[in-house]
Fold:
Amino acid sequence: MTPYYDVWKARMGLPPVGEMARFLRPLDKEFGPEAVERALGNYLDEAGKFVSLARFAHTFKMWAPHLSLTDNRCVNHPAEFAVATVSRRPLCRSCFEAL
Ligand SMILES: [Zn+2]
Structure:
């Protein structure tokens, strides 16, 4: 988690350690530290002082344009990122769960 603290500290000051562990650890596991570190920097640069790690985690892929899966949008809801591909059609979570 240390690189994330550094990213935070450089922009925001004292890092919210508990919240960071809670929201960043799952992303770290799924996407790897490098992707999360870059995405967090992108988010903090953009969000200014209205920062929410919950929001960052929820919209993670928006902040990680370096991940190839960013382009993967739901065929039914272009605003939503796809979480799965079914019969070669990318689907968002709600479409996927409705199958
Ligand atoms: Zn959908």
